[in-house]
Amino acid sequence: MRQLREVRLQSKAIKDITNGYPLILKDAIEPSTSEMDEGSLLHLVDKNGGYIATGYYGMQNKGIGWVLTRKEKEQIDKKFFAKKISEAVAKRANLYTSEDTTAFRVFNGEGDGIGGLTIDFFNGFYMVSWYSEGIYSFKEDIYQALDEVVNTRGVYEKLRFHTNGQYVGQDDYVSGEKGEFPLIILENKMKYAVDLNDGAMTGIFLDQRNVRKALHDHSNGKTVLNTFSYTGAFSVAAALGGSLGTTSVDLAKRSLPKTIEQFQVNDINHESQDIKVMNVFDYFSYAARHQLKFDIVVLDPPSFARTKKMTFSTAKDYPKLLKDALDITNEGGTIIASTNNASFNMKKFKTFIDKAFKEKNTRYKIIEEYQLPEDFTVPHNFPEFNYLKVVIIKVMN
Ligand code: SAH
C-alpha cells in the first residue's frame, strides 16, 4: 500500500510552493521522525495543518520529491497521469505533425507537471526516463495512461536512479514492437541514428535541436571543429550545411564508430571528415603545433569530466576552455559555447565569456542565444529549470 504522509512545510517553502515552485527541497519540510517510503504521497501542510499541496517523495540529487497538485481534492491516479500526459501531447501538436522532425520531448518532468519523469518520442517509439524510485513506483498507472493517450509503436525506458553514477546494463524494452536499432529519426530533415537499448544515452541530445539547426545554417563554406563531439551530431549538421570539413573530437572510443554511423546514415563519406578519439585539451595543443585553425568551434563539454590527468568543471574552467578555443579560431570566426550545467544561469555564463575574451584582448559580439527548445517545457516563473545555455559568439579581432 502506498503511504500517505502529512508533512509540515517551512514558511519559505510555503511561499514558493504556493507560487508554483514544483520542487520539494530537503530543508523545505520539518524533519520527520520516521523514514518515508519512496513514492509516498505527501500531503503538504502549514503549521496549522492547512492544506498547501500534494506531492510525492522521491530522492533525486536536487530535492526529495515534487509537487503534483495544489488542489486538495485531486486524486493521484491513472486519470491524473492521463490528464497531464494529454495536456503535454497537445502542446506538441506541431511537432507530432511535422514531416521534417520525428524526434522530440513529449513530457518534460516538472515543466509538464510531474517532476522526475520525462518521455521522448523517436519515430513512433516512446522512451520513458524515471529519475527516482519514487516516481517509478507509479509506473503501472503511468504506462497505462500513456497507452490511453497516444498510439505507441513500442516503449523503452531508462532507470536513472540507484545506479551510483553507473548505468546498469538492463534491457530497456518495455512493451509493443521491439525496435530495430539503429532507428533513424529526422530532425529538421537531417537524419540521426539512435539506439534506445544501449545504455544510458541514445545517440542524440534532443535539447540541442535548435542549435544543430543554427550550426547547419552557419556552416556553408566553413571549417568546423566539434569538441566533446559524442556521436558527432553537430558535425553532421555542419556537413549537411555545406561545411568545408568537420573535425570531431571525443575521448570515448565508442565515439568513432558512432560518428561514422551518423555520417553514413546521411550519405556523407566519413573519410572526408576528421574524427579524433582524444582528449580535447590534448587536441588544442595538437592543433596549435600543427597550426590548425577553424572558422567555427563548437564547445559542448559535460558539466564535469575527469580523466587520469585532470578534472574539468564548467563552473570553474569554462573561461580557460574558451581561451584555448580562441587560439585555434580564425579571426572573424565563430565560437558556439554551450553548457547544460544547471548550477549557474545565462547571466553568469556570459561573465565567463567576457572574462575569457578580455584576458585574450579580443573583441567579440554575441550574435545568437539559445536555451531549451519549446518541447523542453520549463515551469512558469522558474527559469532556473532551463538548464541549457548556448551562446554563438563572433570573434572580432
Ligand atoms: N556535444 C555532444 C554531447 C557531448 S556529451 C552532442 O551534442 O551530441 C559529452 C562528451 O564529452 C562525451 O561523449 C564524453 O566522452 C566527452 N568527453 C568528456 N571529457 C572529455 C575530454 N576531456 N576530451 C574529449 N571528450 C571528452
UniProtKB/TrEMBL annotation:
Keyword Transport: no
GO biological process: methylation; rRNA processing
Segments forming domain PUA: 5-90
Keywords, ordered alphabetically: Methyltransferase, RNA-binding, rRNA processing, S-adenosyl-L-methionine, Transferase
GO MF annotation list: methyltransferase activity; RNA binding
Record bears the keyword Membrane: no
UniProt xrefs under InterPro entries: PUA, PUA-like_sf, PUA_sf, RlmI-like_PUA, SAM-dep_methyl-trfase, SAM-dependent_MTases_sf
Stored SUPFAM superfamilies: PUA domain-like, S-adenosyl-L-methionine-dependent methyltransferases
Signal peptide: none
Entry protein name: Class I SAM-dependent rRNA methyltransferase
